[in-house]
């Protein structure tokens, strides 16, 4: 069993001030795969103090030197791909091929995007007779989730490093192993002590301590809307900046003239990562003339979705991350049945032949109405809700009938309609006809999906303050 009780503070691996062991559970086996320690106030204070002491020197380090260290970190990350994939497989249940490709690959993709954006990023520019400067905001608390561990660590740590911020990372206590490995890589790359620090802990403990800490200038958080609200309240007393990437309940609007693969593509996308993605298209809205065919196709696609062990190669989905998540998903499936939605595929319990691990049956409901719980609540599992609509106006209203606003999806061959819809839906991102967003495109949402943007130049700006200087001409 892996024992990883230490924290990374001021360039050193240090013991917790007060040991507080926590078991890390492999969701595929329900067995302990590692032990970490949760931090307390003394550990948080030490990490923040290290970041504060390192800030001036790092902020004044030439951007070329910062970029060179980030590139070196990327080279190490690439070389240790298999280690990182295995850590994520074990801690959060990603099947090994998904862990090695998508989960690991998200980190390298974002790092390359930030280095490219950094080449063109204007830290100082002219505006009339003034100079407008972008300066690092300071000490940043980075609080990351369990569902896409390296995706979120890279979206926060790399731009913060790039613009000259120092930081304390608190990864999810459910999936800490990949972040501890990332800290090893930062150390191997040779970043100055205090630039990057890591303290394990839970939200009530280290998370709250960082959010309210007077020497933390910014909190960047990805997770549930409930936790984002709590962090915002904790941060309010010190008026620190809070950047939030929260939940979603994305609508996938399929018009009658959508391409023939639109429904199958939507189901597969919903089930990816076992449905544990904030931007998953979990509400499929289908134009009525195509509805019956779409229902049959969604049923067939879900029934063809394989569930299997995380250690085996293949395109199957794995377990959800924890017993808590498993029970929550089971409860929402049960509510969907009780409220009268038509269960097409899946349902309660584990898939056939599985009696261990937090495996959920790929589930599809049809005839879901907007008053139903499964239409409104983020389930965060492999569960899809399908609803018919009659007109474009109705589709817009239904897509926007949610407290969330992260990603919506539009499927139609009519370019004018696609653009019209994209402009009317209230979400930070809109993907159309199965085309993904480009590297460096801003990631973030409206309403209770959060605020701020991650990725590319927007991700760099997120960690900057803006300063106007008059009376000093540009050279």
UniProtKB/TrEMBL annotation:
Keywords recorded for this protein, A-Z: Oxidoreductase
InterPro entries named in the record: Ald_DH/histidinol_DH, Ald_DH_C, Ald_DH_N, Aldehyde_DH_dom
Domain of life: Bacteria
Positions of the Aldehyde dehydrogenase domain: 13-469
Molecular-function GO term, any one: oxidoreductase activity, acting on the aldehyde or oxo group of donors, NAD or NADP as acceptor
A Pfam family matched in the record: Aldedh
UniProt similarity note: Belongs to the aldehyde dehydrogenase family.
Name the record gives this protein: Aldehyde dehydrogenase (NAD+)
């Amino acid at each position: 069993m892996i024992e990883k009780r230490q924290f990374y503070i001021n360039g050193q691996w240090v013991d917790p001030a007060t040991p507080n062991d926590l078991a890390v559970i492999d969701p595929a086996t329900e067995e302990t795969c590692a032990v970490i320690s949760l931090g307390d106030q003394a550990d948080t204070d030490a990490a923040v103090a290290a970041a504060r002491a390192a800030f001036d020197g790092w902020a004044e380090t030439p951007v070329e030197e910062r970029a060179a260290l980030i590139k070196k970190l990327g080279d190490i990350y690439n070389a240790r791909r298999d280690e990182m994939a295995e850590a994520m497989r074990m801690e959060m249940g990603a099947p090994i091929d998904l862990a090695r490709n998508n989960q690991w690959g998200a980190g390298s993709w974002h790092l390359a995007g930030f280095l490219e954006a950094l080449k063109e990023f204007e830290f100082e520019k002219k505006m009339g007779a003034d100079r407008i400067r972008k300066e690092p905001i300071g000490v940043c608390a980075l609080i990351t989730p369990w569902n896409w561990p390296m995706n979120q660590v890279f979206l926060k740590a790399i731009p913060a490093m790039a613009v000259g911020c120092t930081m304390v990372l608190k990864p999810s206590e459910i999936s800490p192993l990949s972040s501890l490995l990332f800290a090893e890589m930062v150390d191997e790359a040779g970043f100055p002590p205090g630039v990057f620090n890591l303290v394990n802990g839970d939200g009530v403990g280290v998370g709250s301590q960082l959010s309210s800490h007077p020497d933390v200038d910014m909190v960047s958080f990805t997770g549930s809307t409930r936790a984002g609200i709590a962090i915002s309240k904790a941060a309010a007393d010190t008026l620190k900046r809070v950047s939030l990437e929260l939940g979603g309940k994305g609508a996938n609007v399929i018009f009658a003239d959508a391409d023939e693969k639109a429904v199958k593509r939507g189901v597969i996308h919903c089930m990816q990562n076992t449905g544990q993605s904030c931007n998953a298209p979990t509400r499929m809205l289908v134009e009525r003339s195509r509805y019956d065919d779409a229902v049959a196709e969604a049923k067939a696609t879900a029934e063809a979705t394989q569930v299997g062990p995380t250690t085996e190669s293949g395109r199957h989905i794995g377990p959800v991350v924890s017993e808590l998540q498993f029970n929550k998903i089971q409860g929402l499936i049960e509510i969907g049945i009780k409220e009268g939605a038509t269960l097409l595929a899946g349902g309660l319990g584990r898939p056939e032949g599985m009696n261990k691990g937090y495996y959920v049956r790929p589930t599809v409901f049809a005839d879901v109405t907007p008053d139903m719980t499964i239409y409104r609540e983020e389930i965060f599992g492999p569960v899809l809700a399908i609803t018919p609509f009659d007109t474009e106006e109705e589709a817009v209203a239904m897509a926007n009938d949610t407290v969330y606003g992260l990603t919506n999806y539009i499927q139609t061959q009519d370019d004018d309609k696609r653009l019209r819809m994209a402009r009317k839906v209230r979400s930070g991102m809109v993907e159309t006809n199965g085309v993904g967003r480009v590297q460096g495109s801003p990631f973030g949402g409206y309403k209770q999906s959060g605020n701020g943007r991650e990725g590319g130049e927007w991700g760099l700006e997120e960690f900057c303050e803006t300063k106007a200087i008059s009376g000093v001409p540009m050279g």
